Amino acid sequence: MNLHEFQGKEILKSFGVKVPMELVATTPEEALEAANKIHAEKGCTVFAVKAQIHAGGRGKGGGVKIAKSIEEVKMYAEQIIGMMLVTPQTSAEGKEVHQVLISENVYYDGPSKPEEYYMSVLLNRATGKNMIMYSPEGGMDIEEVAEKTPELIFTEEIDPATGLLPFQARKIAFNLGLSGAAFKDMTKFATALYKAYEGSDSSLFEINPVFKTADDQILAVDAKVSLDENALYRHKDYLEYRDVREEHPIEVEAKAAGLNYVALDGNVGCMVNGAGLAMGTMDLIKQAGGDPANFLDVGGTADAKRVETAFRIILKDPNVKAILVNIFGGIVRCDRVAQGVVDAYNNMKNAINVPIIVRLQGTNAVEAKALIDAQEGLNVISAVEFQEAAEKVQEVLVA
Questions:
Q1: Where does the record locate the signal sequence feature (predicted)?
Q2: 194, 206, 238, 308: which is the annotated catalytic residue?
Q3: Domain harbouring 11, CATH code
Q4: Are residues 37 and 185 in the same domain?
Q5: What is the pTM of this model?
Q6: What is 55-113 written as a DSSP string?
């Protein structure tokens, strides 16, 4: 589950990671009030106004502005709230901005030079260990840094049994070229950041930039946080962070129906039971010349109601030109799935306007095929072999 920047920082702060003083606003008036509160407490007259959407690269799309007065905060909030923000990580239509984050100025003068770093915590699947990836080149796309100057990307692998050890935190601060008070603060920052990642059961913490102020404080100026949904039962308070406005509406509907659905850009709708079979089905569609329009796993209880719900969700995508149903009858009987397809088709005659290819293998597969073939007026094509099903999809696409 992805979080907004301000939500990620709330988690960071709860684990002792230092962040700037910031307040969220949903209207220009709230933004003005937030700026006045920050000014009263911090005395600053320069503020960052940052759009809150689930996408990076907000500054490139005009979603981050530096206000040099309290009055400018309201002006920029009026511009940003309600805009369709297009970034390298959004669609061409962009995402609507519903709120902004008003942040204190951290680029003030002091005895040392301000610096920006990159730091993220994630799982290294190759080794089965968590790792901290970091670089002295903060504020930039880490992919660009890795491509042009790979020697400036450092990693620190962490044994899950011990956590981040003190010598590893010091090594991070040393590789970032820090000394004195900034060195000590960075070791505390890295340690607290890892505790936040582990304690919140996150799948990703990305801080870009980690900022060293002119008086050698280390702050998380930005935060991209993704929580592991499988662990949310341990963090019920985090459930309130979900912002369905930032999620694909069809995916939200599918989740409410208990279906595992991910929208894609293709033209062939997929209805499959089992994640592995679903991935294989998508690969075969692609190999046969089609493009999957979705990942949809109906699970092991593909009864008539569930199949009908899956059809309705798939058909909400206007790009779908054909649907491939690929079910392996292990837990579920194929004839029951076939009856579900027939019932769903009869209940949705006016809604189903694309051909359906059905491949059922496993328990009672012969009876299932006979059931479908016996139906009259049913725009359903049955297949036996995996490859045959993909080829039939291609045939109906070019017909």
A1: none
A2: 206
A3: 3.30.470.20
A4: no
A5: 0.81
A6: -S-TGGGT-EEEESSHHHHHHHHHHHTT-EE--TTS-TT-EE---EEEEE------SS-
